[in-house]
Amino acid sequence: MSNHTHTELFTIRDWLRFAVSRFEEAGLFYGHGTQNSFDEAVWLVMATLHLPHDTLENFLDAVITEPERRELLHLIERRVTERIPTAYLVREAWLGEYKFYVDERVIVPRSFIAEMLHEQLAPWVTDPETVVSAADICTGSGCLAILLAHAFPNAEVDAVDISDDALAVAHRNISDYGLQDRVQALQSDMLTALAGKRYNVIISNPPYVNEESMEALPPEYRREPQLALASGDDGLEHVRILLEEAPGHLHRGGLLIVEIGHNRDALEAAFPQLPFTWLEASAGDQFVFMLTREQLPA
């Protein structure tokens, strides 16, 4: 690409058009917070310029400076040629209204459980005040643990991950939200380090990509820690552990809520005796199940 490019593009409108053209030409994959080239371009351009995304209309005709143009050109090129997710390039990811710091040490947050926490797990939790302990297993960037703390103001939350790298990111997000006194980041292989602990709610968005799908992942997903994606041949390795060990870590009436990607049929075939409740998400009721402690095998 010519070095003259950044001298020909002046306004945010120019740069959005240019980014969309480059993204379309390159046939990029979206799936880390946006679904299309325009939304991706808005995110990359606005975040790079440190402007709130919802102020786009105010600034479309604003002329940007030479250093800003060089930075934009650099990031657009990296997005296209290296297939690095925008979240990593601009060091942020969003779940609804909540913004989190992310980098290559964690997968980019994307979870239907976030929508359910926004509703305080209604109708399954009737009184949010009564949830005093909760855990997020495979917390990654800590995002769902932070949403748990917001949903349940009386809850002490354990944010659990096997990866020290991920926990370093989780620590940063927990302190960004000022939740150090209620959210504790813990290094643990699933539930092994939680001996003696019990919770009202355990949530998990664990690795759930099966072997076949791992082979077919787009390059953008290959930029993420593979540890956080792969879960054995059938994608159910981590779910099996949760189903086996969660009962010993739930209070009476406690809830286990797990996101499983596209594995609903495989899961129901593997555990025909379990009365899964499938929770309604924006994309349908295929992706997140709930079981109470009483429904889990003792």
Write up this protein:
The protein has 298 residues and is α/β, with parallel strands linked by helices. The protein contains 13 helices and nine strands. The protein folds into two domains: 86 residues, Helicase, Ruva Protein, domain 3 (Orthogonal Bundle); 191 residues, Vaccinia Virus protein VP39 (Rossmann fold), CATH 3.40.50. Helices cover 37% and strands 15% of the residues. The protein starts with a helix and ends in a 6-residue tail after the last strand.
- What would you call the structural class? alpha/beta
Count of DSSP strands: 9
The strand line-up of the biggest sheet is 5-4-3-6-7-9-8
Shape: elongated
Strand content: 15-25%
Spans of at least 5 consecutive residues whose pLDDT stays below 50 are none
Q: What is the ordering of alpha helices and beta strands? A: HHHHHHEEHEHEHEEHHHEHEE
Number of helices: 13
CA distance, first residue to last residue: 62 Å
Computed Rg: 21 Å
Largest sheet: 7 strands, mixed
The average pLDDT is 90
CATH class descriptor of the largest domain = Alpha Beta
CATH topology of the largest domain: Rossmann fold
Which CATH architecture of the largest domain is right? 3-Layer(aba) Sandwich
Q: In CATH, what is the homologous superfamily of the largest domain?
A: Vaccinia Virus protein VP39
The helical percent reads 25-40%
How many domains comprise the coordinates?
Answer: 2
How is this fold's topology laid out?
Blueprint: H1 5-8, H2 12-26, H3 37-48, H4 56-59, H5 66-81, H6 86-90, E1 93-95, E2 98-100, H7 113-118, E3 133-137, H8 143-151, E4 156-161, H9 164-176, E5 183-187, E6 199-204, H10 211-215, H11 219-222, H12 237-245, E7 250-259, H13 264-270, E8 277-278, E9 288-292
Parallel strand pairs: 3-4, 3-6, 4-5, 6-7
Antiparallel strand pairs: 1-2, 7-9, 8-9
Helix pairs in contact: 2-3, 2-5
